[in-house]
Design goal:
Blueprint lengths: L6 H11 L6 H7 L10 H24 L4 H11 L2 H10 L7 H5 L8 H19 L8 H11 L12
InterPro entries: RNase_III_dom, RNase_III_sf
GO molecular function, one term: ribonuclease III activity
Protein name: RNAse III
């Protein structure tokens, strides 16, 4: 199923993320939002990784900003919410890249949960792909940069430290 996504679509999503995949199959999997539980299982697995990475990014950023644990937790619950993730995904027009939307003869609306899962899966895919990248191995910064490109939050550059 992952091989049905046109290369031009993968290129456009890579441009949005600011990340060129060494393993484009990870990106294709992140865009495979199936209709049922088992159809979307590979995307959901990437989303689990992405969810953990997004939490880590928020915690890291909060500590860098000298916020209290409570402030970090409250901010994470808002910024890491499905609603916020989906809003960012819809703002960027990521719904047009989902395989089920492109392959449907009828307009299939993408719901909040599915869009949030897609955003998480995209971050998870960047995180996992960064291990495969020959010249880059700073996976959390790579995922942070992609998250910043999705407007999830401002990720600091190295010179900000």
């Amino acid at each position: 199923m992952a091989n049905r996504i046109p290369e031009a679509t993968l290129d456009e999503v890579q441009d949005i993320l600011g990340w060129t995949f060494e393993e484009p199959g990870l990106l294709a999997t992140a865009l495979q939002a199936g209709h049922g539980y088992y159809d979307s299982e590979p995307q959901r697995c990437l989303a689990l990784v992405g969810d953990a990475v997004i939490r880590l990014l928020h915690y890291h950023d909060g500590i860098r900003r000298l916020q209290t644990a409570r402030e970090i937790s409250e901010l994470q619950s808002i910024k890491g919410s499905n609603r916020n993730l989906a809003e960012k995904g819809f703002f960027l027009g990521l719904d047009r890249f989902l395989a089920e939307v492109r392959e449907s003869n009828n307009a299939v609306p993408v719901g909040t949960k599915k869009m949030a899962t897609t955003v998480e899966a995209l971050i998870g895919a960047v995180y996992l792909d960064s291990y495969r990248h020959p010249t880059r191995r700073n996976t959390i910064d790579d995922a942070g940069s992609a998250a910043a490109n999705l407007f999830l939050f401002d990720w600091p550059r190295e010179e900000d430290y």
